[in-house]
C-alpha cells in the first residue's frame, strides 16, 4: 500500500475485507523493550481485587454459582410442562 488510509480488499473466493494502513512508524516499532522498563512494569495493575498468578488463588474460597441450579430448574420445569401438555392435547379413542 502506497498511502495511509482504509482499503477494501476483494478476494478471489468472494470474501471482502477492510484493511487500515497507518504511516506512523511508532506504531510498528519492533525493537525489544529494555529490561529496565519491563522491571518497572512487572506486577503493575494488580489491585486488591485483581487475581494474582502466584497460585494463591487456589486457596481462596470461590463463590457459589447459581446458574447451574437455575438451568436444572428450567429443564425440569420444561419436562413437566411437556408431560402435562402431551396429556392435554392427546386424542382419546372412542370405545365401540
Beta-sheet strand percentage? 5-15%
Structural class: alpha+beta
First and last CA, distance: 86 Å
Work out the number of β strands: 2
Helix and strand succession?
EEHH
Could you give a quick summary of the protein structure above?
By secondary structure, the protein is α+β, with helices and mostly antiparallel strands.
Describe this entry's structure for a reader.
The protein is built from two helices and two strands. The chain is an alpha+beta fold. Strand 1 (5-10) and strand 2 (16-21) form a beta hairpin. The longest helix has 23 residues, at 67-89.
List the helices and strands and how they pair.
Layout: E1 5-10, E2 16-21, H1 35-41, H2 67-89
Antiparallel strand pairs: 1-2
Core attributes:
96 residues, alpha+beta, two-stranded antiparallel ribbon, 2 strands
Amino acid at each position: 500500500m502506497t498511502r495511509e488510509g482504509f482499503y477494501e480488499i476483494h478476494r478471489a473466493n468472494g470474501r471482502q475485507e477492510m484493511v487500515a494502513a497507518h504511516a506512523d512508524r511508532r506504531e510498528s516499532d519492533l525493537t525489544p523493550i529494555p529490561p529496565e522498563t519491563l522491571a518497572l512494569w512487572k506486577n503493575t495493575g494488580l489491585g486488591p481485587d485483581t487475581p494474582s498468578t502466584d497460585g494463591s488463588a487456589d486457596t481462596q474460597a470461590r463463590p457459589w454459582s447459581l446458574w447451574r441450579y437455575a438451568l436444572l430448574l428450567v429443564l425440569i420445569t420444561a419436562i413437566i410442562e411437556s408431560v402435562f401438555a402431551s396429556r392435554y392435547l392427546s386424542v382419546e379413542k372412542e370405545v365401540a
